[in-house]
Amino acid sequence: MDEAIEAFEAVRGPDTFLHNIMIHGFVDAGLTVDALAVYCAMLMAGACPDCFTFPIIVKCCARLQSLGEGPAAHATVIKLGLEHDVYTGNSLVTFYAKLGLVEDAERVFDGMLREAARQSGILDTDIKARAENATLVKASIPLNHNLA
User: Fold this and answer.
1) Is 18 among the domain residues?
2) Predicted confidence (pLDDT) per residue in 6-38, tens digit
3) In the chain, at which end, N or C, are there fewer CB atoms within 10 A of the end residue's CB?
4) What is the number of structural domains in the chain?
5) pLDDT per residue over 85-96, tens digit each?
6) Residue 147 lies in a domain
7) To 5 degrees, how large is the angle CA 81–CA 85–CA 89?
């Protein structure tokens, strides 16, 4: 990690992608606290965390059983509108369950189910609309069996 840290620190204004790489590197090396430090530095630098950031950050919080950073990360997830991301949601459910906060885990899971049902309804409506449109288009094409 020493070379990665050196390269990272040499970059002027590292973006979200680079922060995520460093966070993952620290987690892979078993350096959970350092991964959270990079996340905090990311926030301080104004880089915006994304759906690739939060699953690993929440995993770090679960490993550390952190009742401070975990819910704070969850609040940021909601603020950024990422609460319906499957991977982020799953990590939050796991985090709360590992800490014995079953009601919080259920609340996150229920929100994921509601979103999945909403998306399913949207897809169903879209498919029906496309099918109806295809039927209308097909009906409007004159059939000419006498083509030479």
Assistant:
1) yes
2) 888 888 988 999 999 999 999 999 999 999 999
3) C
4) 1
5) 889 988 999 999
6) no
7) 100
Query: In the block, which residue shows the tokens 């040499």?
Result: 10
pLDDT in tens, 42-78: 999 999 999 999 999 999 999 998 888 899 999 999 9
Give CA separation, 33 vs 17, 50, 79, in Å.
19, 20, 24
Say how far apart CA 147 and CA 58 lie, in whole Å. 65
Q: Is 148 inside any structural domain? A: no
- Looking at every residue in the chain, the average pLDDT score rounds to 83
DSSP string, 83-135: TT-HHHHHHHHHHHHHTT-HHHHHHHHHHHHHHHHHHHHHHHHHHHHHHHHHH
The pTM of this model reads 0.73
9: its two tokens: 């620190």
CA distance 37 to 140: 63
Look up residue 69 and give its two tokens: 């950073």
Name the residue among 31, 115, 108 with its Cα closest to residue 75: 108
- Expressed as residue numbers, the domain containing 39 is 2-140
